[in-house]
UniProtKB/TrEMBL annotation:
Protein name listed in UniProt: 5-carboxymethyl-2-hydroxymuconate isomerase
Organismal lineage: Bacteria, Pseudomonadati, Bacteroidota, Flavobacteriia, Flavobacteriales
InterPro entries in UniProt: 5-COMe_2-OHmuconate_Isoase, Tautomerase/MIF_sf
Keywords from the UniProt entry: Isomerase
Molecular function, one GO term: 5-carboxymethyl-2-hydroxymuconate delta-isomerase activity
Top-level taxon of the source organism: Bacteria
Amino acid sequence: MPHFVIHCSQNILNKKTPNEIIQRVYDTAEASGLFEVGDIKVRINPFEYYTIGNTRDDFMHIFANIMEGRSILEKSELSKRIVSELTSMLPEVPIISINIRDFEKATYCNKSMVG
């Protein structure tokens, strides 16, 4: 925890490498001080087939899934930092966005928690 899943147009990977994008999101999440360093997970899924308002404009959206317990202000600041960092990295991309969703502690489970 947390998981940052990046959806983007395939063309973005011609501008920056997947590792550069992943590292920027990771570094920004780490710098927030909201998470344990070893817990941050970032993945990227490029899309070849999509439409944005019936166009082929480039896009990037990050789905952030984090454990409940952070304030609205903390989540808002994290969103703004990540979008700001990606905008500075990819200023020509017209759509860069993020949403943050909370996991419930009561319903979360991973391999180490069973058996």
